[in-house]
Amino acid sequence: MRLSELKTGESATVVKVLGYGGFRRRIMEMGFVRGQRVTVVLAAPLKDPIEYHIMGYDISLRRKEAEMVVVMTREEAEQLSYDDTSIQDVDADVVENAIKHSTSHISVGLVGNPNSGKTSLFNTLCGRSEHVGNYSGVTVDAKRGTLRHKGYTIEITDLPGTYALSAYSPEEVYVRRHLVDHTPDIIVNTVVASNLERNLYLTTELIDISPNMVIALNMYDELERSGAKFDHNALGEMIGVPMIPIVAPSGRGIEELLDTIIAVHENRDKRVRHIHIGYGSVIEESLEPLNTDMRQHRDELTAHFPPRYFALKMIEGDKEISALLEATPNYERWQRMAQRARTEIEEALGEDVETALANQKYGFISGALKETYQATERKRNTIGDKLDAIVTHRIWGFPIFFILMWFMFYCTFALGAYPQEWIEMGVGWLYDTVHGVMGEGPLRDMLTDGVISGVGSVLVFLPNIMILYLFISFFEDSGYLARAAFIMDRVMHRMGVHGKSFIPMVMGFGCNVPAVMACRTIECRTSRIITIMVVPFMSCSARLPIFMMIVGTFFADHAGTVLFLLYLLGMLMAVVTARLMRRFMFREQEAPFVMELSPYRMPTAKTTVRHMWSKCAQYLRKMGGLILIASIIVWMLSYYPRPKYDNDTPDAPNYELSYMGYIGKVCEPVFEPMSLNWQASVALLSGIPAKEIVVSTMNVLYSQQGEPINDETISPKVSERITKSMSLPSAVAFLVFALLYLPCIATIMAIGSELNWKWAVGSAVYNTAIAWVLAYAAYLITSLII
Amino acid sequence: MGWQEIIVGIVAVVVAIAVAHRVWRFFKCGASQCDGCSKECSHRRNSR
User: Fold this and answer.
1) Domain boundaries, chain A
2) Which of A134, A335, A342, A748 has the fewest CB atoms nearer than 10 Å to its CB?
3) A294 to chain B: nearest residue by CA?
4) Chain A residues touching B33 at Cβ < 8 A
């Protein structure tokens, strides 16, 4: 019986906790574990919540939560031992015996498409002869049968065939209600092996509900006869569900299926893991607010399904789920949120929610099968198939990809240069205006040299970032980015990461912050960590001005080659780091996962622009606050303490005597082996908030008193002074250090936010150490050569 | 001390508080986006 059925004063022993994930864990943390005695202390006036006494303390549970705890009273145990003589043990407690008996009992729900051979499997398993037929709808209600296998009593429930778990047909409603009311320990999903694509649609729905599932690949002999190649183990690992080939009528694979059911029940099967089906950026973004809100009010939801499933079904407009949630206090708000999400999705994708979700699920299946299934002859009818044949072609795929990437970067820098110039002019105008309007004093200097110059230097890169995201959004929404990741999968695997890691790494050339955030799409935790840690080696666009300045000064004749070599060194370090991490830190075999190949879709201008803007707004919000504070701090450190004004040059900044100058002097010994002076040390240090500050700091520090200071370009005189104070080997060391040393604060914070602060600090320390060692090596090698 | 110095002083205090707040949060639990140590905290779960 359920805990909620106990009356005040009654006691029982906990048998098991039903339900899912977080809820189940929380209840078990409270002490509701097998064998614990629980007593009902009292119920609140409205019979909810109910207070229980367990493990020496009182605890209150809502009735809904108590419904999920299976308990056994002494009367029940005695009745059971009376009925079943096999569990009678005179030496042991009758309740203990009964519980032991009940834990060796597994309830299995047989779920699958109509005509997928469920009843045939049921008959083979239970030795029954229920009616079977080669047409859908043979089973109209649930049938139960039991069997004994390796000490377990397995109770099988044959459910009606269904294509999905929506609330459209009575079968769908029936199956879902059964899963809610009876909560089977294991779901066995029968899938017709020769018709995987359609059958796996139901699997995607079941995955959302329960991780305790086994797939029975029925009629596997048909698939073998057809000559198709199918790596069912790989697919099983990808979707986190064991797949067992069977031929139900002949009994082939049945033994393995039963063994797997027991292994999954005992949490021994390592293939089992709970994955989420990715529904694409549009749906995920619209789903997120409702999902988050429902997660926060998890207590109000029935514990049978995860909050994400409820959120999805509400957006789909599922009436059954709505009825289930109607009594909850937040139902009205959730309805409004679901309606808003529905409208957003329909406007963005130009199709109704059900179609959009179905397309994404088929995209997931298509991606999974592309990696594991090879049909004998593939019909290439649709435009999508024809496009796929070209863009994922083993020869043409790579050149097409590189041309598109080159075009993206070309447009990012070439087209972005115009608005960048306008913003620079605007920032310059604002600087001059504030400088002219305000009276002389520290506030004016803070606003102009600190706030406007600091924030302005970041703002100028906004057009480049917008263009980059415009392309990325277009590639993402059209479905091309998934194909790009697909063709790069093998290269990435050699690095020890997954094909999906390629997308954030490409984005890292633009800006490391969104690249780190883009790693969220990588499901595998180890791959995600490795990718996040190597992204800072992808030289971001903010480092480009530093390279331009030094390369332009020292290697004017071979600027292009040196730049290329620098980018190459960054990529090489990324590869080395990834391999080292996989070799020494994350040795375990990477769990394969599905790269969704959603159908091609022409993105609407509105969706693409909205995506682009949402990412840019995020960039502005995060960077604006951080850059503002960092700029003010850098300014204060370089402005104070103020020495007494020299009458001859009252405006001259005396950086050498400032705190920044002092810090530079302290850091100087670190860079002394590379013969870098304190100005270079300070410039590198000032690049911690944002790399572009390095250029302006060097410009300021190498300018002479009274000379106009230009933040973004470098005057010939400054260039001359740099040449005088820095040797060629020092310049090479400076370039290598600037390329590899710790990423900007925004990236470190992004790493902290995506992983945790230990990784963020680790990344900063590792990158800086590598940068120093390689910079020193570069200095020595260059010194030997020249 | 002029009015500009006073405003810069106030800004310095605000910046110091903002930095101190983040440092405090960092030492408190290590999560960059604190949600009050709820059970749903991503840092607590240490995975997404």
Assistant:
1) 3-72, 104-265, 283-374, 618-785
2) A134
3) B40
4) 753
Count Cα atoms within 13 angstroms, Cβ side, for A412: 22
Q: Which fold has domain A283-374?
A: Helix Hairpins (1.10.287)
Per the CB < 8 A criterion, the answer to whether A173 and A167 are in contact is yes
Can you say whether the dihedral through the CA atoms of A278, A282, A286, A292 is positive or negative?
positive
Mean pLDDT by 10 residues, chain A (786 residues): 84 78 68 82 73 80 78 78 51 64 78 82 74 39 80 85 74 78 86 85 85 88 84 87 88 90 83 80 84 80 76 85 82 89 85 83 85 70 77 85 82 80 89 90 87 76 79 80 79 79 80 79 80 92 82 83 87 92 80 65 75 74 70 82 57 67 85 87 82 76 52 57 87 95 85 84 95 96 90
Distance CA A213, CA A203 (A): 9
Cβ distance A446 to B11 less than 8 Å, yes or no, reads yes
pTM: 0.56
- CA nearest to A440 within chain B: B4
Is this prediction's ipTM beyond 0.90?
A: no
Q: In terms of Cα–Cα distance, which of A567, A399, A575, A388 is closest to A493?
A: A575
Domain boundaries, chain B: 3-45
Where do we find the tokens 């060629």?
A728
Q: Which CATH number fits domain A104-265: 1.10.10.10, 3.40.50.300, 1.20.1250.20, 3.50.50.60?
A: 3.40.50.300
* Cross-chain Cβ contact B4/A525 below 8 Å: no
Helix, strand or coil, per DSSP, at residue A214:
strand
User: Which of the following CATH numbers is that of domain A3-72: 3.40.50.150, 2.40.50.320, 2.30.30.90, 1.20.58.1370?
Assistant: 2.30.30.90
